Amino acid sequence: MAMRMSSLFLRTLRENPADAEVPSHQLLVRAGYIRRVSPGIYTWLPLGLKVLKRVEQIVREEMDAIGSQELLFPALLPREPYEASGRWTEYGPNVFRLKDRKENDYLLGPTHEEMFTLAVKDMYSSYKDLPVSLYQIQIKYRDEARPRAGILRGREFVMKDSYSFDLDEAGLDKSYQQHRDAYIKIFDRLGFHYVIVQAMAGAMGGSKSEEFLATAENGEDTYVRCANCGYAANVEAVQVAAPDPIPYADLPASHVEDTPDTPTIETLVTHLNSAFPREDRAWAAGDTLKNVVVMLVHPDGSRAPLVIGIPGDRDVDEKRLGAQVEPAVVAAFEEADFAAYPSLKKGYIGPEVLGEASESGIRYLVDPRVVDGTAWVTGANRPGHHVLDLVAGRDFTADGTIEAADVRPGDACPSCGHALESARGIEMGHIFQLGRKYAEALDLKVLDEHGKQRTVVMGSYGVGVSRAVACIAEGNHDDLGLVWPRDISPADVHIVATGKDRVRDPEVFETAERLTRGLEAAGLTVLYDDREKVSPGVKFKDSELIGVPTIVVVGKSLENGVIEIKDRRSGDRREVPVADAVTEILAEVN
Ligand code: ATP
Ligand code: MG
């Protein structure tokens, strides 16, 4: 097919849109692929839709290749299934909710576990029906707190989601592996650099979960990897290796000391070194136990404080903490909250007043490094006072541990102990052994070979299809514009006719038109710049901005019987005789 720019629904822009910060967002808007409707909500213009469809097609082909079957659920969904799984509440403000004329509750699907589970329950009842894998490529809705970077994090976006249904864990492992292999093929074909990292397994715990992250310096996900053993994990999923407990029989008793004006770790360490100097070495931030208080807001709106005890040389990592407390969200602990919980003395919080069994009842979780026998300097719950030699397991016991401390380059690899490196990426896909959570909630059972009811075990697998478009653009551009990989480009060839108009330069337009038809007949998609009275400069700029990998210039050189073929990526150009043009271009693009 051919798209003629004289009539194509396209306007390129010379300036970056004011709200666009990352190159993919700037270029996709400027080159006329997408257009903003509202924050996180975009229109796909003809060129953009072509790219989106090509990405969809790659995903579709690889899903079909593993025997997954495509279907399509509605995006507009009734409340009941989500009520049954608990997610009507759990999702909180992230979900778009609406009512019909009879006041019934509906939502716009943020993800479709419930619908897939119910569909299988509706149609299947025997182990003989399993395994089955189903997928859809569909528009999802999430009222993201921070829509970002155009289509990279939208509130309406296209996702491929698939689910596997198996009788047992061995079957699930196989389905998971098939999806993993398919994802490797998909992301290889999409042409961006990616890493596969361990991810949060979520509420089920223990089951396998991996993310495919496109490597990108401005990505929202931080991951760590170990050059020694190959371990790679999203920081959210890093499990700090807890040291062995230390015998504490010979440790000195704890003692409360006057530490005036020491509400921060820095002031405390300075004070310790002047007032209580150690003989072996100086006090350091890591000798202190910092108790950070946050407010957890649960999906039902209830609020409860949580105190996190971490070594004073660490900070609480918001994302790690957020992932741990899901579906609750973390809010700041305000002055008014301190007033409501008078046992918490700002800057001097200590374990004595904490814990679910304590008088305050405040939940207290500590970093895994706070093992029994470790001695700490920490708050004495009185302004200007700290307690020294407070020993975990002897003087206090927390309600449990939490993986909320930041993970840093150089930290020990949880798997081999070597130093970790850190890098950033964008989550493109997520594969996840879901287990029986939804099958149990929605009662999806089949009869096994002995005639017994068995709960089905599920896997869940997502690809960010529209996000992939942004990600590919992010990884494939230069100062002039986009540079699409061949398999993703909205067209195979961009023909530029540089003549003034059809009256003054009939040969240029006729040759370009003939070439367009010839390539079209050979099965190529051609973007043909047939605009009259548009300067060659403008046309070249547009072709560079739009980013079709092969640009063909039909113009002045026709006098010598040649046209020019230009490689958008390398900038290399070569002249070929008009007579050979179709053959030469076909050789170039295939
Ligand atoms: P994120 O951590 O980026 O918010 P998620 O873990 O919530 O993503 P999943 O529920 O695992 O996302 O969804 C599957 C895939 O859908 C993700 O891997 C991602 O590529 C894509 N995706 C998720 N949210 C968005 C969004 N708001 N806009 C575009 N793509 C998204
Ligand atoms: Mg995910």
TrEMBL record:
<dbReference type="GO" id="GO:0005524">
    <property type="term" value="F:ATP binding"/>
</dbReference>
<dbReference type="InterPro" id="IPR002316">
    <property type="entry name" value="Pro-tRNA-ligase_IIa"/>
</dbReference>
<dbReference type="InterPro" id="IPR004154">
    <property type="entry name" value="Anticodon-bd"/>
</dbReference>
<comment type="subunit">
    <text>Homodimer.</text>
</comment>
<dbReference type="InterPro" id="IPR006195">
    <property type="entry name" value="aa-tRNA-synth_II"/>
</dbReference>
<dbReference type="GO" id="GO:0002161">
    <property type="term" value="F:aminoacyl-tRNA deacylase activity"/>
</dbReference>
<dbReference type="Pfam" id="PF00587">
    <property type="entry name" value="tRNA-synt_2b"/>
</dbReference>
<dbReference type="GO" id="GO:0006433">
    <property type="term" value="P:prolyl-tRNA aminoacylation"/>
</dbReference>
<keyword id="KW-0067">ATP-binding</keyword>
<keyword id="KW-0436">Ligase</keyword>
<dbReference type="InterPro" id="IPR023717">
    <property type="entry name" value="Pro-tRNA-Synthase_IIa_type1"/>
</dbReference>
<dbReference type="InterPro" id="IPR002314">
    <property type="entry name" value="aa-tRNA-synt_IIb"/>
</dbReference>
<keyword id="KW-0963">Cytoplasm</keyword>
<comment type="similarity">
    <text>Belongs to the class-II aminoacyl-tRNA synthetase family. ProS type 1 subfamily.</text>
</comment>
<dbReference type="InterPro" id="IPR045864">
    <property type="entry name" value="aa-tRNA-synth_II/BPL/LPL"/>
</dbReference>
<dbReference type="GO" id="GO:0005829">
    <property type="term" value="C:cytosol"/>
</dbReference>
<feature type="domain" description="Aminoacyl-transfer RNA synthetases class-II family profile">
    <location>
        <begin position="35"/>
        <end position="485"/>
    </location>
</feature>
<dbReference type="InterPro" id="IPR050062">
    <property type="entry name" value="Pro-tRNA_synthetase"/>
</dbReference>
<dbReference type="Pfam" id="PF04073">
    <property type="entry name" value="tRNA_edit"/>
</dbReference>
<dbReference type="InterPro" id="IPR004500">
    <property type="entry name" value="Pro-tRNA-synth_IIa_bac-type"/>
</dbReference>
<dbReference type="Pfam" id="PF03129">
    <property type="entry name" value="HGTP_anticodon"/>
</dbReference>
<keyword id="KW-0030">Aminoacyl-tRNA synthetase</keyword>
<dbReference type="InterPro" id="IPR036754">
    <property type="entry name" value="YbaK/aa-tRNA-synt-asso_dom_sf"/>
</dbReference>
<dbReference type="InterPro" id="IPR036621">
    <property type="entry name" value="Anticodon-bd_dom_sf"/>
</dbReference>
<dbReference type="InterPro" id="IPR044140">
    <property type="entry name" value="ProRS_anticodon_short"/>
</dbReference>
<comment type="function">
    <text>Catalyzes the attachment of proline to tRNA(Pro) in a two-step reaction: proline is first activated by ATP to form Pro-AMP and then transferred to the acceptor end of tRNA(Pro). As ProRS can inadvertently accommodate and process non-cognate amino acids such as alanine and cysteine, to avoid such errors it has two additional distinct editing activities against alanine. One activity is designated as 'pretransfer' editing and involves the tRNA(Pro)-independent hydrolysis of activated Ala-AMP.</text>
</comment>
<protein>
    <recommendedName>
        <fullName>Proline--tRNA ligase</fullName>
        <ecNumber>6.1.1.15</ecNumber>
    </recommendedName>
</protein>
<keyword id="KW-0648">Protein biosynthesis</keyword>
<dbReference type="GO" id="GO:0004827">
    <property type="term" value="F:proline-tRNA ligase activity"/>
</dbReference>
<keyword id="KW-0547">Nucleotide-binding</keyword>
<dbReference type="InterPro" id="IPR007214">
    <property type="entry name" value="YbaK/aa-tRNA-synth-assoc-dom"/>
</dbReference>
<dbReference type="InterPro" id="IPR033730">
    <property type="entry name" value="ProRS_core_prok"/>
</dbReference>
